TrEMBL record:
Transmembrane segments annotated in the record for this chain: none
UniProt-recorded name of the protein: Uncharacterized protein
Domain of life assignment: Eukaryota
UniProt xrefs under PANTHER family: F-BOX DOMAIN CONTAINING PROTEIN, EXPRESSED, F-BOX/KELCH-REPEAT PROTEIN-RELATED
InterPro entries the record matches: F-box-like_dom_sf, F-box_dom, KIB1-4_b-propeller
Occurrences of domain KIB1-4 beta-propeller (ranges): 111-383
F-box domain boundaries: 10-41
Pfam families membership: Beta-prop_KIB1-4, F-box
């Protein structure tokens, strides 16, 4: 008589075999999916993580979903990013910055509380940031235009000085349409502040200007917080909670450049500030657009980039143009600009290339005109060596992401 077949479960798979499988997975998304199967696989998946190369960046969807670089949704922790009480969120490197309205509906954005969470961890435990919210409130009180009741989302961009588990990380937020920066520490509750760059420091003899300068980006470098103005001035946030000038503003730099009178098209220039191992870089993003473009259409298309490094050793300090990224790549979107070592990423990241996506638009006109925004309408890979622009993703992955009809931002997953 034949022996009865032995029934076994996938959860009984030996740990050494699971380790061999993990070493052959093409992406961190597969690691996350494997660990979500059962507890034994979760435990085994935590052991060999140091042997798995970092993945290519993912896509964070405004509705709270993460997609890998194949356009497939990634299963995250049991608690979704847009959990109960969360009114909005931003992708911050490998974390999600959550914003809650304090006291429920109608509490006002400025009265909200905020926190950070790792969206692909199993615990989904939030790290509260009460001091940052307090700094934002203080900025609102200083502002003549914004109050907690007339702005829905004061946070334009959030950055970290170092990883969340480091000894003394800081968090900074570009807020209130770019006129203020709020900064606080996680572990020292006496460090709360906000700052802005006054017009007087730039336009000494031009009457009729407002009291604050428009700031386009912020970045931490060597532990210091820097901000970039629309006129490409560079400022550092000092211990006295005041911004000090490093590179003088160029009043000839503009956001819109007009072509000859016989052309309907003009250039919109966006600027980003990004750190690379203690070196600061300015990126100019040139976008061609037409004033006759319909709302909801392809408003602007990126045509080229320029990159400059801050030389802070000369007097006066200045921006110096560079022609390459030293084997690195830059990922940029409406709320992010980050260097990535191309050779260390899984997924074929190209050296000396800039990976870019739409600068904004969370489907602004869908409720009004029935149109919907293509989240990848203005996206691609800009090669600094030859100036060519190639598609950001294969068509199959692009088709999946276009179905979302909402803006996407970069998410840089870390091993969990």
């Amino acid at each position: 008589m034949a022996a009865a077949a032995v029934q076994s479960s996938w959860s009984d798979l030996p740990a050494d075999l699971i380790s061999e499988v993990l070493l052959r997975l093409p992406s961190l998304g597969d690691l996350v999916r494997l660990r979500a199967v059962c507890r034994p696989w979760l435990a085994a998946g935590a052991r060999p993580q140091h042997q798995i190369p970092p993945p290519s960046p993912w896509f964070a969807h405004h509705a709270g979903t993460l997609f890998d670089n194949h356009g497939a949704p990634v299963r995250i922790c049991s608690t979704p990013i847009l959990r109960h009480g969360v009114s909005d969120y931003l992708a911050v490197d490998n974390l999600a910055f959550l914003v809650r309205n304090h006291g429920g509906e109608g509490g006002g954005a400025g009265r909200g509380i905020c926190s950070l969470v790792n969206p692909i961890s199993q615990s989904a435990e939030e790290t509260p940031l009460p001091d940052l919210a307090e700094a934002v409130l203080r900025a609102m009180k200083d502002s003549n235009s914004f109050t907690p009741d007339n702005i829905t989302m004061p946070y334009a961009k959030v950055i970290m000085s170092s990883p969340l588990d480091s000894s003394d990380p800081f968090v900074a937020a570009l807020i209130l349409e770019g006129y203020y920066v709020a900064i606080s520490a996680f572990k020292r509750h006496d460090v709360i502040g906000f700052g802005s760059v006054p017009w007087d420091e730039i336009y000494m003899n031009i009457p009729g200007k407002g009291s604050k300068m428009y700031l386009v980006d912020i970045a931490f470098s060597n532990g210091w917080l820097y901000t970039l103005t629309v006129n490409e001035g560079l400022y550092v946030f000092g211990s006295d909670s005041v911004f000090h000038q490093c590179i003088v503003d160029d009043i000839d730099q503009r956001q819109i450049y007009t072509k000859p009178y016989y052309s309907d098209d003009d250039y919109l220039v966006l600027r980003y500030l990004v750190d690379c191992n203690g070196r600061l870089f300015l990126m100019r993003r040139w976008m061609g657009f037409s004033w006759n473009a319909e709302l909801g259409g392809d408003v602007a298309r990126t045509c080229r980039f320029e990159v400059f490094e801050a030389d802070l050793t000369t007097i006066p300090c200045q921006w110096r143009k560079v022609d390459g990224l030293g084997g690195q790549a830059i990922f940029v979107d409406h709320k992010c600009a980050k260097f990535v070592r191309a050779s260390k990423c899984v997924g074929g990241v190209q050296e000396d290339c800039i990976y870019f996506m739409n600068r904004f638009y969370a489907n602004p006109c869908r409720e009004y005109s029935g149109l919907s925004i293509d989240p990848l309408a203005d996206s691609g890979v800009y090669n600094m060596r030859n100036g060519e622009i190639t598609p950001l993703l294969p068509e199959a992955a692009t088709a999946k992401l276009r179905l979302q009809h909402q803006y996407l931002s970069w998410f840089f997953p870390a091993h969990v």
